[in-house]
Design the sequence.
């Protein structure tokens, strides 16, 4: 049974702009942004994860998901269940993503002349936009970190899916609901 208490998870607090201490530090912040983007996708489609009779769906596509897709009806218990699992509220997710974006921009401006960061070298060498770099990091994240691999599996409600699909990556990056 779901409790009626709402668990609120505020966005992380990042220190004001300071230079990245090591080349891997930027990648860590970009991976943190991916975690928040995955939470955004989970909040947008909670029914993909939730099944009333079991709590968690580990099917590729359940009957309930097909029904919800065809009827457009959402199960309000799914949102509450995500909150109980520790997924931040949509408002906090968006705030965290905005703060991460500002943090990355401020820190990169500070180190622009001091060092060449691997992710920035990739961006320059291949002429990547911010969105393209974000998609590249999001696609690589499950191979860079076991917890990210598990998070993707959870977000898809399919333990066998550890690598994101193109549509899921677009969903995580989209600011549209």
Sequence:
């Amino acid at each position: 049974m779901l409790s009626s208490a709402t668990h609120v998870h505020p966005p992380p607090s990042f220190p004001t702009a300071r230079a990245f201490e090591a080349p891997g530090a930027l990648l860590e912040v970009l991976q943190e942004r991916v975690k928040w983007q995955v939470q955004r996708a989970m909040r947008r489609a909670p029914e993909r994860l939730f099944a009333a009779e079991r709590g968690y769906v580990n099917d590729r596509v359940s009957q309930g998901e097909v029904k919800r897709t065809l009827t457009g009806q959402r199960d309000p218990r799914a949102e509450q269940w995500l909150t109980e699992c520790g997924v931040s509220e949509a408002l906090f997710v968006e705030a965290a993503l905005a703060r991460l974006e500002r943090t990355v921009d401020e820190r990169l401006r500070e180190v622009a002349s001091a060092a060449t960061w691997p992710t920035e070298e990739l961006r320059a060498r291949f002429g990547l936009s911010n969105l393209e770099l974000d998609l590249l990091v999001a696609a690589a994240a499950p191979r860079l970190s076991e917890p990210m691999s598990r998070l993707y599996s959870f977000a898809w409600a399919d333990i066998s899916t550890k690598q994101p699909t193109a549509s899921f990556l677009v969903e995580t990056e989209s600011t549209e609901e």
About this structure: The longest helix spans residues 23-44. Confidence is low (pLDDT under 50) at residues 1-8, 14-18. The CA atoms of residues 29 and 104 lie 7 Å apart. The two ends are 29 Å apart (CA to CA).
